[in-house]
């Protein structure tokens, strides 16, 4: 079987696709990954063929947003659309940049002749490529995909279909015409809009297998809990967009300001605080004696011995937290993160930090650390997740999709 995988966005998007790509290669299938050049290293050692054919999403979005805000570009969109979070997410998923990505990837796809397209959940040019080639398509686990209204996105995608000469689709779930993949049980779904049931599998802890704990962390004493704080992989993308003249999302604080508040807050908590910088400039920052600042941490591995995860609310990190059974405090910044923080609290797996100040952050962290109900809920969710099948079940499902014999989901 030949599988084309289309990936865009941040490293987090690529990492959500990576386990399935590796599983396919290990099963003897041929995989071609089309992506922007800056994501290519994520697939090093995967055994897949990697082609930097996909346009850079930041370049594409910045160009299109600039045109729309100036009254040009796609005439079906207008500047007021960006004030509506639902429409804004639909534009980021299915806006005019999808046409450019389709035209860049299609020649490669026609040469490769895939039997199936596996796409990053927020990447929709793969849907059009699959429709053009007459093969099934399926999405990988995705925070962006969770907060994109599929019916609304189909309306925008029909504009893209017109632009490339494909027939319009009336199915409200056209972006999930052949289903979707997820790594949480149905009862713990983070999908914001009605979507078809996902084929669910147990997320492998890839980082835990590839790394060891840094000596500074493995030497930490056991008399205090470890609190891991991470700002995620999407923040550098936002900083880059800022540099190119695109302002921060409404209500979002300056990333550096938020980061400094986290460091100050954790100095107030009786814990070993491990803070991953995520590319945020940290020159001159004052650290409490219990705070360990690190450019990189092997997050899945460290979560195995962590007692609380202070997360920005990205979907990859939340899944890793549930997989490790770690209570979470969410400090959302943009995109799907506010929805994820609300869902996390609704499920009783953590709290949403709404008082964004050093004292407000510290209070929630301390409260969650000592909340037995949240700990109990996490243990239940972890056991449900560990009861899902491994990646080999996804491979078998994709084989049946390509053969036209897909049965019931897991």
TrEMBL record:
Coiled coil: none annotated. One of its GO terms (biological process) is antibiotic biosynthetic process. Keywords: Glycosyltransferase, Transferase. GO terms for molecular function: UDP-glycosyltransferase activity. Transmembrane segments: none annotated. Belongs to the UDP-glycosyltransferase family. PANTHER family: STEROL 3-BETA-GLUCOSYLTRANSFERASE (PTHR48050), STEROL 3-BETA-GLUCOSYLTRANSFERASE UGT80A2 (PTHR48050:SF13). This is Uncharacterized protein. It comes from Streptomyces chattanoogensis.
